[in-house]
Each structure stands twice: as C-alpha cells, then as structure tokens.
Amino acid sequence: MVREKENFVKQSTHTSFYTGGQFAISNDGQYLLCTYNALVHILDIETQQIVRSIGEDDTSSEIASFALFNDLIVIAYRNQLLRQFDWKTSTCLRTWKSVHKNTITCMTFNPSGSLLATGGADFTVKIWDVEHLYYTHNLKGATSIIRVVLFYTSENKKIHVISGSDDGRIYMHNLHTSGAKPAVLEGHMSTVTSFVLHYDHTLIR
Length: 205
Fold this sequence. Notes:
mainly beta, Methylamine Dehydrogenase, Chain H, four-stranded antiparallel sheet, 0% helix, WD repeat
C-alpha cells in the first residue's frame, strides 16, 4: 500500500524572545513583558507573538531590572542609566543617571506610581520622586546585595520600604524617620528573593 505524501503549511514561527531575568504581566493580562539582552520584548499572550520591543539592541548596555506601572516602564541598564518609556508605544520619555554605586538589581513603584524604589548591588535602596526625577531617600543598613523591594503603607499612613538581600535578612525602613536604622527580620539561611504582604498587611511571606 502506497501512502499519499503529506504536505505541511507553516502557520507561525517563534524565535527566541527571553534571555532570563525579570518578566511581568500587563494589568489587563494581555501582554507579557520580558528581558532580551538590552531589550524588553512585549508579547501578545494569546497569539504568542512579539508585538513590539522597547530600547535598542545594544549588548554593551544590557538590562539589569525594570518596573511596570500602568503604561509606564522604567528600565535600569548595567551601564548605570535609567530610562522611562511608554511601553504601549515604545516611546522613551526620559533618561537619567543612577546614583547607585553599582548595578540596580531590583525596582518597584509604590501603589500610586508617584515613587520608585531601586535596590542595588551597592547594598542600598534609593527612593525616587517619579515626576521630578530626583531621589528623596538613601536607605542603608543591608550588608549584602538587595534582591527584592516592596512599598508598604501602614494604618497611620506612614510609608515603609521593605527589602530583602543576599544576607538572608529583611529590612523595613520608615520613610518618615530620616536616618533611622531599619527594623531587621532574620530567619532565612540564604538569599531573600521574593516576598508578599498578607492581605491585612500584618504578615510578610
């Protein structure tokens, strides 16, 4: 019995789009944003296709970290530059120089998008006024690289910044007590890579 020859028609092509590191999902759940060397690729989750890319494909300035808030994305590069984009149009809105003494390893916006926290390999966390582009706080106390950072507002409306580092500790800074030492939570035996607040903000997990 002779089998008929089968013909296959290519429907789609997928190329490499992620080189490791950070990724995020847009608020509407439609897009995946992920790092690809010096670019942030934006993928349509349903079609699995890259719809646009942010930045320039320059291997001399690879991405170290980024933070997403609504239509805005701030990208930290290993050459110590920070760039703010409208990620829906890939338009660069601002560029400025980091005041960290080493690579920015993590970053996040506060819930209103008015403040940006950047954690660095210089063991510090900087707080930035997003609108005016200057840093308002230089938070010290960690003894190793900062790996994760989070804003927390207490019941009395005081803003805190919580960070975790390679030394296995969690640091809690009160932004309203300038120069004060942070509260320190210990217990981990290795790097703190992520955490989340309990819904009533009484526990860190």
